[in-house]
């Protein structure tokens, strides 16, 4: 009772004279304002004035300390909405709940305080920045994965953490102000990552980029030439010079290239074979169907023509328990379609409209929605997806049997719109019906593909999406896998989407995908191979998925400098023996792998596409002689774009849907 805020406690059997004396003594006591107390009697936290006093003393020691320490502030992204609904009392209660988590974790946090807005203040003296960042990240993950009772209501909170080194702060007020500015930036992303203060957060100009925009644009335009120089000219000169020195490196490179082509082909065939034995969905759920939520992430100016059809398709879903549909969207200006959506929400309470102010990415929209959903299972979809009516019911069959995420089968529904859409339609069957199930069976882990994926809400709340990654879905996959999540793949869990209909749109989409995969590979490959969280089989799969996929496009390009070197050494192209058995074998194996993949894609495709045999023949021809090289070129360009720090997100344009493929 004392911890709950009582001044005193007496038993029910207290003597009336003693009780009257206690009351009289308290009435005569001079009251002390709460803010003048060293510690808040209810939360046990330093009041803001006393916390600033502690901070002052620490700042005087920071200059003499090898590790000056950190001051952090923790805001809550949902605070404004909570206060509107539950009143100002939630400020104190939220600070108290956050402090409880910090105290339970212990660690490097020395003193805890709070300000009048309910933000938690954390003083971490004598620690380096990496240690502080790690402790703050652990705190954020723990808070996000916990359901709190605030004002008698069960809520989920998104901690927004801003911090600044004490050595960068001349006084206590500037330290707190800098941490507050960093909190504002963290709230914008809602991705749980602690944000270090930077001067631009206060309107100061950003540090000048190493490469100006004009120079960057010029270098990007010349990137095909750079690829030829890096991948062909430099290796050829190297082989030539080494031969002059007595080292026949070019001949060894020939065997490496041939071996690489064979390895790539064998890996494709293995995935195809293992896809036949992919795990089947459990027939019955292990637990009753829980409340579920669908999150549709949308950028309205791009999705305005399709979003109403999408929402209507979700409202037709069949699920035996409560199902809410959350449309989390951002728009730079009001759109007429918003009036239509508001009318739909008024007529069907299952539809929840969530405009995300300040959002610039799909990741921010999902992060804003994850704390608002009520379901124990969350399905994530892009704004052009039409899931099958029983999608959520079938997804729960997986999650109820111990899986944390299940990735479904994305099917193209506008294949008749253009030859590009037909190509992508067959490619998606090769990816979602063959490669994903086969890889999951072969390496014992699946991959979340960004849409038509179903998560346990608690795991999604802890994982979030990082908007700084161009493929935030693969980044989230890696972090979930490292946490021990089990990800399944189900090719019978169908959702239909729109494919790009022009080569330019396809190029922009695949460029973003390739660069995003490269970012994930650079960030996670080496730590994953060293981690004890993965088995040897999983590490082999991660090496193929993150390592080999980045090496292979450059390795295939080496056939050009190797042939140039061989022709130079032989005295001209006419002097070469083109019928080398091992070279013919490598060519045959590589071509046959493409045939096998197309055959398996047709065999495992959904019925409505399997009837389109001409699409698969066209895909086999185009992929063999054009599309495979197209994707390799995109992958090489992605490396140069990442080096140039060109990380612009180019939105894939959506139309009204074009011609739909008739369903079975």
TrEMBL record:
The keyword GTP-binding does not apply. It is a multi-pass membrane protein. GO terms for molecular function: glycosyltransferase activity. Gene3D superfamilies: 3.30.70.270, Spore Coat Polysaccharide Biosynthesis Protein SpsA, Chain A. GO terms for cellular component: membrane. Pfam families: Glyco_tranf_2_3. SMART domains: GGDEF. It comes from the Bacteria. It is found in: Membrane. Residues 20-197 form the GGDEF domain. The chain crosses the membrane at residues 211-240, 252-274, 540-566, 578-602. The keyword Oxidoreductase does not apply. Keywords: Glycosyltransferase, Membrane, Transferase, Transmembrane, Transmembrane helix. Signal peptide: none annotated. This is Glycosyl transferase, family 2. It comes from Streptomyces himastatinicus ATCC 53653. The lineage of its organism: Bacteria, Bacillati, Actinomycetota, Actinomycetes, Kitasatosporales.
